[in-house]
Task: structure prediction
Amino acid sequence: MNKEEKILREINKQVEANTNSIWIYNLDLSKLEISEEVLGGKESDSSELKFDSCNLSEIPKVVFHKVGLNSLNLINNNIKKIPKEITKLKYLTRLSFEENELTSIPEFLCKLEYLSSLDFRDNKITKIPECLKELKALKRLSFSNNPIKTIPEWFGDFTELQDLHLDKLFDDELPSWLFKLYKLDELRINDCGLRRLPNEFDVFKALNTLSLSNNPFEKFPEQLFKLDNLEELFLNNTGLDTLPIELLEVENLNYIEFYDNGWTELPKFWKNQDKIDIEI
Result:
């Protein structure tokens, strides 16, 4: 059995395991053209396709035949360009290009009006196209770790957003439009040079998950005490040397990640409480 046959056999196994959600991962597909039959044939009604870590330089053409797709994941590949054929997938609600080589987002992508989740983290994108604001169904959006110089103010119009990831995209200050997004239940703004949080930060009453790691805080941000829906808090490598006991009063808080802040063991007080699980 040659290498190509082995790969096809492995794909068949993964397809047979769940024809509705096909996840192909850790296979080198760079020199292999995938036929429709390999993905279950023309009668396949797969709603989700994942090609993760497959060494792809472009989206396999067979994908564009799956016009009923709801979700397409292409995580950790080498894709540099989004082809216009993607507009054939007009029912897409979730699309991820996490960890690829994209430098731009084409305007035709905004024709996918049902998109509720877009993930472009860890690419080489320099600009966010204005047409993106037409995607009224968006609930989750990630641009973390891209060389984007400016996040447009119209991001504040995404008032229905629930998850927002913008790591490394601010320089020591948060923009005013961010505080219009009070419905967020997850916010990740790691590595943004933040030394303090503005008073307006307590507008995020709906937050369940907040990640503020790799920000050089001058003191513990007391605004967090008012976020009663907060369940998970990430404060790794922030230079903070203490966790205030007031955190116990944050009603739903049950997990704090506090790596790389100089703690080698939990202080006695935090050892003796059982409300919050603290990882150091």
